[in-house]
Design goal:
By secondary structure, this protein is α+β, with helices and mostly antiparallel strands. It is 33% helix and 37% strand. It has helices spanning 3-12, 54-61, 100-113, 150-159, 165-179, 181-192, 244-262; strands at residues 16-22, 30-36, 38-39, 45-50, 64-70, 81-90, 126-141, 144-149, 196-204, 208-220, 223-236. Helix 3 crosses helix 5 (165-179) and helix 6 (181-192) crosses helix 7 (244-262).
Length: 263
């Protein structure tokens, strides 16, 4: 696997990071802050931030930022991390609103990843910002690292075929959560070795999909132990997809593998 593909796979497993901006208050100094983010269907980070936040003021004055995503682990230096360098741009600045469908899809996707943010949409000072990545520095582990430009990060999976997933994602997710919960549970068991009892698909993209696991049933020393969880599991496709039809084929193929192995 190329370093660029590995970097994008890693990025899709992270949902928070450290955003560094140019301080307006302390000119010449960087300002770091923790921020949640999701990815759009072009693998660009999307942040929902308030106009009163210090980093928002900094972005308005100077949009050049870096976003550090890292794996949650005790030894941070021994694990993967990715620094994205680019410009943060408000998605719908004043006078240029998103179309209704785009706004609805973006809001729905964000809330699937961050349901606790629902109240933010009742306020008028929160806006979506997208980080347009120019360069990235990926460290996969000791001795395995490198700089990547945006074209290398995008690769053919995002650019070779028109990607219809942004408009079809909600329908795919609704169908999977209504009619194929048993498949989602089987994916968790086979691909992550977790006996999940409450699952929900929350996102699907050209590279794979995400499932929120709210409860895990574990077997320890022949005694069943039910542990409450709220975590997001990542599943990768063998080949990139670009629409509902190719998504269905990939999901069916994974179901056949998972059910055969589970049985």
């Amino acid at each position: 696997m190329s370093l660029a593909k590995e970097a994008r796979r890693f990025l899709r497993t992270t949902h928070s990071g450290i955003l560094s901006t140019h301080s307006s208050k302390m000119v010449g100094y960087p300002f770091g802050s923790v921020t949640p983010f999701m990815l759009d269907h072009n693998a660009h980070p999307i942040m929902l931030i308030s106009t009163i936040a210090e980093h928002t003021k900094n972005i308005i004055a100077n949009p050049k930022v870096s976003l550090l995503a890292f794996a949650q682990a005790e030894d941070l230096q021994a694990n993967s991390r990715l620094t994205l360098i680019g410009e943060a741009v408000q998605i719908h600045p004043a006078g240029q609103p998103l179309s209704d469908s785009d706004a609805i899809n973006l809001r729905a996707r964000y809330l699937r990843y961050f349901p606790q943010a629902v109240d933010y949409f009742e306020m008028h000072d929160f806006h979506f910002y997208r980080v347009h990545v120019k360069q990235a520095r990926y460290i996969a582990g000791f001795g395995k690292m490198g700089w990547l430009d945006s074209a290398t990060m995008d690769n053919e999976a995002l650019t070779a075929t028109p990607n219809l997933l942004a408009s079809e994602e909600t329908a795919i997710i609704t169908h999977m959560n209504a009619d194929h919960i048993h498949s989602l549970i089987a994916y968790c068991q086979y691909y992550h070795q977790l006996n999940a009892t409450q699952v929900q698909m929350i996102g699907i993209d050209c590279d794979g999909f995400d499932v929120r696991v709210e409860e895990i049933s574990e077997t320890i020393d022949e005694h069943r132990k039910v542990t409450g969880q709220n975590t997001i599991l990542r599943f990768e496709f063998d080949q990139p997809i670009h629409d509902a039809l190719s998504a269905r084929k990939a999901l069916v193929r994974m179901s056949k593998i998972a059910f055969k192995k589970v049985e």
